[in-house]
Amino acid sequence: MDYVKPGEVLNAMIETGENKARLSILQMLAKGFLGGAILAFATTLAFTATQQTSLGIVGALIFPVGFVIIVLLGLELVTSSFALIPLAVLERRVPLSRMLANFGWVILGHLIGCAVYAILYGLTITKMGTDFSHPLIQTIIQTSEAKTVAYKHMGGSGLALVTIKAVLCNWMVTLGVVMGMTSRSTAGKIAAMWLPILIFFAQGFEHAVVNMFVIPAGMMLGANVSFADWWVWNQIPVLIGNFLGGVVFTGLLLYVSQKGTSLASQVERDASSASSSLNASDEPGRRAVPAATAGAGKSL
Q1: Could you tell me the CATH number of the domain that includes residue 252?
Q2: Which domain holds residue 36?
Q3: Per residue in 78-135, pLDDT tens?
Q4: Domain count, the chain
Q5: pTM of the model as a whole
Q6: Is 52 in contact with 135 (CB distance < 8 Å)?
Q7: Phi/psi-derived region of residue 128, left when phi > 0, alpha when psi is between -120 and 50, beta in every other case
Q8: Is 193 a domain residue?
């Protein structure tokens, strides 16, 4: 069957978290670089679709293509790992230090990947810095300012708001990567992953990796945003909110709700394996009896 039961999905989440935590530094940097750049590609594609149609929902329908590419290629997205690696730590598969190392190196990879794409994309839409009439330039600038100085003007309420939006965002993003584990076929994985990502992007929630591209890209194009505005009023609270959304609402709650079924699924698989082995070992004996009987009949 194509469908994977929730108990088996939980096992896959823990195993995936363990594998991610055991990557080498070079692998984490490379996979983080590619994950950040590909998500930045998807973001500008979504902006383009929204600008061309004047419908935000069209951009939201298209944006998950980046997430799908990242997951299917086994690349790194730190926001997804927020729901997976903590479970491996909880199960004592990996130490806490490996989890923190993964988060740190992958975030660095994201920042580099997003910066590279931001520079190349900026040169593209400005025609090597000679023409600033492209409509997406203003879109990126306005988005960059809306994600930083708009919260700054709200003060403490702004920090609370951006954190809440980050929690809601990664609740869906991590659910997207988990939904991809509910199918064994590529088409099934794509369809399952698409839905939660569409939900988060369509409602304007805050995603740390998307912001690693949008905000610095806006700064490069002339947005009235400082480095401190970027990190204090968005990047740090969004990373915190994304972590809480992923580890609490997806990782821990699915762990609590499916832990028993996970054990039951393992018992069923072990029993099935034992039964298959027993049947296989009995098979020669069953074939030998008729042969012996036939031989005895002939001797008589």
Answers
A1: 1.20.1080.10
A2: 6-260
A3: 999 999 999 999 999 999 999 999 999 999 999 999 999 999 999 999 999 999 999 9
A4: 1
A5: 0.87
A6: no
A7: left
A8: yes
